[in-house]
Task: structure prediction
Amino acid sequence: MKEQQKIQHLYFRACFGIDFNELEQQKDKNLKKVLKEVFEKNSKIKNIEIVEKPKVENRNNLTEQEKRLLRKGSRQKIKNLNIAWLKQMAEPEYALREKMTLFWHNHFACKTQIAYLAQKQNNLLRKHALGKFGDLLHEIAKDSAMLQFLNNQQNRKEKPNENFARELMELFTLGRGNYSEKDIKEAARAFTGWGFDFSGEYVFRERQHDFESKMFLGKTGNFNGNDIIDIILENPQTANFIVKKLYINLVNDKFDEAIVQELATFFRKTDYDIKALLEKIFSSDWFYEQKNIGTHIKSPIELLVHYQKFFGLDFEDDRSWLFIQKVLGQILLYPPNVAGWQEGKNWIDSSSLLFRMTLPDLIFGQIEVDFNSKDDGDADTEGLGKRAAKTLQAKVDWSKITKQFLVHPQEEIAEKLQVWLLSLKPTNILENTQSLSKEVFTKNIIRQLTASPEFQLC
Result:
């Protein structure tokens, strides 16, 4: 495999793709040097701070009309947060961290109607996206949005609520079958009294906490929630569970058990260092084997970020971003349930595939929209992006895009575009448009490539 293809594969999986000029500059570099640059140049952190912290107030004292107005205002702020995050993913210096923030957003799937809590959790995931998994796990357990979503606000001694304790083990760490119902009940007791106040800050309600002895995963003691998490992190199955999920997301949904076990052992030895694990994955020869190239079906969010990153896509009406997300079945900050989005082939059905293949014409050709957004049965997303304009008024800087290719002979342009935009060669032969000007020729090839099945893969 050519070095350029390896570099493109690295950027596709780690950073939502790469700009054409940068790929051209990188193609003659040593892969090891490029990998080092990826972590140095693409993992900066920038929190999103567009929602103000709410004033401390007892919402129980508000009228129903006041509550409705608060909810309506919060929904609009969550839409704004959605779009701000989507656009930040396309900024090169944040790409690696944002890619991992998106991964953890799906792993710790959570939604809230309170915009400030959604923003607070999003920044928490961003902070620890490349750090230690243990630190992330401890903080997410005290995150107000998560405590609200999984009902730990109602978790009190003598009447423990098991929701958070169950999902902590089943979906966040150990995986089903690696704990008992007794472990869930004992863990729930350990998390009693963990909640948050009206300002959205974590609080420990001592009077509601069960201070009695507990037996969890074979250990006995007066455990609190932090102790439960530490015991879970000591269990080798936690590293195995996280690594397997990362492997499926970054490498191939057909995982290699021997490699997963090797990576899990490494993950534990590094004290669950996420950045070190990613560096090991991306520097391994097996990551660049042909069987792992072009096998990942882009999630709707990945697809939208690619359009931004490759073509500088934006819309006259920001609702278009939300409309496309809903049609394709992935709305940021609105996972379908605590298990998150089911990825891979689950992204594709007859309706979403047709829309994906039509999207280039909607964006580049300004043809009319004839699609309805999916009814996901979620009252919170009702009307979210529902009424898009008849045409998606896209803004694409064609002069900037075509300028990159005018220096090349026309017979090389199609090949360079293929190398840049696709992991695999298109199965359909590109339409012969050699008689056109370079600008028009480049536009036509881009529209053909982005409408190909191969553009859905990376």
About this structure: Residues 300-456 form one domain. The mean pLDDT is 92.
